[in-house]
Structure formats: C-alpha cells, structure tokens
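Trying the structure run again after the queue cleared.
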Amino acid sequence: MTTWTITPEHPGSPVAAALWRAYYTEVSDRWYLRHQGRRTDPAELEREIAARPGSELAPPAGRLLIARYGGAPAGSAGVRLLDPATAELTRVFVHEGLRGRGGAALLVAAAEDAARALGAGRIVLDTRGDLVEARALYARLGYTETAAHNDDVYAEHWFRKELVN
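Done. Tokens:
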C-alpha cells in the first residue's frame, strides 16, 4: 500500500524549489487563462519564482512541509507567523495526478500542527475564486470564510480557523 509522509524541509532545497515551480506554474497559468486567454510567460514565471523563494517559511517563524507519496515528492504546504497568535497557511499544493488521495488534508493538518508549535492560536489563509478545489478543501476542514486580512491583489477569499490544542 502506498502511503503519505510529511516532513519539514528547508524552503531552498531542490525538492522545495521543484514543488514551488509546479505550484506557481499551475496557479499562474490558471489565472492568465481565466483573465487573458494565455499561459504564463516563461520569463515572468522565472522572475516570480526568483522573487518569492519562500524564506518566510523557514524557522524560526515559519515551516515548509513536504508531502511524499510512496517516497516521491508530491506536495507542499507552508505556514508562517503573521503575529505571535496568528499563522498564515500558504502554498498548499498536491501534484494533479495525486489529488483525491488524502494528501492535501494531511498537509493542512500538519501545517496546523506546525502553527500550534509556533505558538499560534489561529490560522488564516487567502485564495482565489477560481481555485474552487482549495475553497472546498478548506471549508471541509473547518475553515470559515472571513473578511479580508490582507490586500493581496490576487486574493478573493479569506479563511480562518481557530486552533485548539
């Protein structure tokens, strides 16, 4: 039986970089196809990946978690403190061919545990309207939609969950 494992990883590792590239390519392409009828320009993709290496997901105020399915890198989730009581969930991603096998829920649960370990009592996130699978996942996992907690130009929906010990 193939199983999921989830472990912390440095955001600069080759595995983390490959998963960030896959995540960013997918969400960027979806946005551009929706709004401009095209895929992401490769040069823009490279600029954005270089500009957002994920250093905020490194200890001591953040964690990047890597999911492996049958030992192969399959997904990621990040968490970072916004303030001493609030963590932000970000970069939740599972490779398309492995979706529907429970990995995303396991990643989010591990991220919630990491947020608790960082001292957070609540976790927040933002997402876009076209990422309907993500919105359904968060609702299923007990997140409630709230007012905006940031001014991210791409954010259209904001969620929150109180973390109980």
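The longest strand covers residues 72-83. Worth checking whether this holds up in the mutant runs.
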